[in-house]
Write a structure and sequence with these properties.
Elements (H helix, E strand, L loop, with lengths): L13 H9 L1 H11 L17 H13 L4 H5 L3 H22 L5 H14 L16 H4 L1 H9 L3 H22 L6 H25 L5 H5 L1 H18 L1 H7 L6 H4 L15 H16 L2 H9 L4 H21 L14 H10 L3 H18 L7 H15 L13 H33 L1
Helix pairs in contact: 1-21, 2-18, 2-21, 3-5, 3-8, 5-8, 5-9, 6-9, 9-10, 10-12, 12-15, 12-16, 12-17, 15-20, 16-19, 17-19, 19-20
Length: 431
Amino acid sequence: MPLSLIPRCTRLPMERVGKWLGRPREIYNLLRFKMGGGAAVMPPLDQDALSDNLKTCYKHLNQTSRSFAAVIQALDGELRHAVCILYLVLRALDTVEDDMTISLETKVPMLHDFHSYLYQPDWRYVESKEKYKQVLEDFPTISLEFRNLAKVYRDVIADICHKMGAGMAEFLQKKVDSLQEWDKYCHYVVGLVGIGLSRLFSVLELEDPIIGQDTELANSMGVFIEKTIIIRDYLEDQLAGREFWPREVWSRYAKKLSDLAKPENIDMAVQCMNELITNALHHIPDVLTYLSRLKTQSVFNFCAIPQVMAIATLAACYNNKQVFRGVVKIRKGQAVTLMMDATNIQAVKSIMYQYVEEIYRKIPSTDPSSNKTRQIIVSIQTICLPNGTVVYRNHYSHIYLSCAMLLAALSWQYLSAMSEALEEDIQANEN
């Protein structure tokens, strides 16, 4: 089909076509996922089996989580509902912490007492200005479903909420100075979630007791994700008046953390970020050990997918000036490919290997932390592939698949344009 026959408004820009040709497997997986191929990894939730309150909770889940909503809804049975409520309770707690319009006099007691609100049917907070304020405004629905859970779930959720609230309150009144404090803050914010979830997996006998007992590995599962988020969200946090990068690191590159956003400091900013990414990579060995112990497929998918998303995000951020200018995200096709691939430990190791290899190729020789970065990457690669063999999961010819995807895209746009034109003609004739 000649390009000249396609209406101008529906033509694909050549730069976009070029990008598609360079990532044929991502396009293939994106189309396959949208056509139902992702059901094996992310089975759809049966909405008809839910109460009205639970439907509302899952609505809040999908509105407040880009990364975790799908993997939570893919869990089995009662565990799915418990993890949904755990997420919403902690999202509400996190919304209080993030809201810079709430005074410390109000916020600190709220964080300490938040776990008690779970047992107060009418408690809600309607004065938040944060984007996820709906979980505070509709907290009675969330707390009701919390109280409907079995005691084993309630005990874990309330305990994690109590410890997390206390930790958040502690860091509201002080800055994250040392790397040790950075680890501690990340433990409070997400590491505790990893520990709580692991306790649930073991108590319900979905996983062996060691999963719930080894809190160090469970903590690393959360800390790795949180450090990734903190690194990626530097600019967003700065604009909101929040600071989570450790002074011990950034003070070697700037007088104030906000100075890293200035164009004249971009080189130093990138070096600082690279050092923090190197620090985050040290959690990957723990992550791989934890994942290697899991035996329940839905639990494995739930745990593995956020981890491979995190390493892909770090690879996108490493040595990337855009982190200090805007938003850095992984592509939709890339995310779908990761979700569909990360279903067993060997696949996860292969993914980890490939992304740390991507980081390795981008290490500047002049970067102050370059040697440390290379050392941890070699260590990770040794763990991932002790036999020295990379298992690439691409079984299709790039050339043939690229042509097929391009033809499908052009044909779809042509048919869509013709359909719209036909509808316009019919409407015109009727008028």
